[in-house]
Amino acid sequence: MESLKSHYLAMARYNRWMNEKLYALCGTLSDEERKKDLGAFFGSLHRTLNHLLVTDRAWMKRITRDAKYDLKDKDGKPLPFQYVSDDHFTDFEELSRERKQTDLDILALTQSLTPEQIEGPLTYKTAKGDSFTHPLWWALSHWFNHQTHHRGQATTLLLQLGKDPGVTDLVVMLRSGG
User: Are 51 and 84 within 8 A, CB to CB?
Assistant: First the structure.
């Protein structure tokens, strides 16, 4: 079981490493470029990054039960969860700040998990209201895979916008101690 924890810690570090790289490149683009519909699943780079952040916060909420991960309107009232939150974080600076904090929270959560918790059950509801119970490791594996999938889309969008994200391989990050 300890090896599973090590695996998830590596994935949390990879998540943070890749997001730092992507957001640094995204910061060199204009708002218009980030929000341009390039025909991707979520349309734009900005919407893809928004989706990743919103779903990461949803998983943090499901695992920790902490209300700080709820999406809120401008008056601080909770919003229903939406997978395609195309305009929840409209400002790139706010999106970047929330991304950095969420990545730190993901890393802290992963560091705090015991092997027993990883093997233990997680019960949660989806955005559609369906309830599920399964081992936490199922959710963690899905979660980190989901991040990698959509970051792959983001790197393609960056390349379309003339920005090369460079090496994105997990093993490169691991070798460098990232």
Answer: yes
Helices 2-26 + 92-112 axis angle, to 10: 170
Look at residue 60 and tell me whether its pLDDT is greater than 80: yes
55-88 burial string, b = 16+ CB within 10 Å, else e? Answer: bbbbbbbbbeeeeebebeeeeeeeeebbeebbeb
CA distances to 27, 75, 88, 135, 141 from 93, rounded to whole Å, are 9, 19, 13, 36, 29
Token digits of residue 108: 């802290």
Structure tokens at 67: 């209300």
Contact 26, 158 (CB under 8 A): yes
Give pLDDT tens digits for 2-34: 688 999 999 999 999 999 999 999 999 999 999
**Residue of higher predicted confidence among 54 and 107:** 107
| Residue % of the chain over a pLDDT of 90 | 79
Distance between terminal CA atoms of the chain?
23
DSSP track, 127-167: TT--EEEEEHHHHHHHHHHHHHHHHHHHHHHHHHTT-----
Note whether 8 and 140 are within 8 A (CB). Answer: yes
Beta bridge partners of 123: 133
Query: What is the per-residue pLDDT for 74?
Result: 74
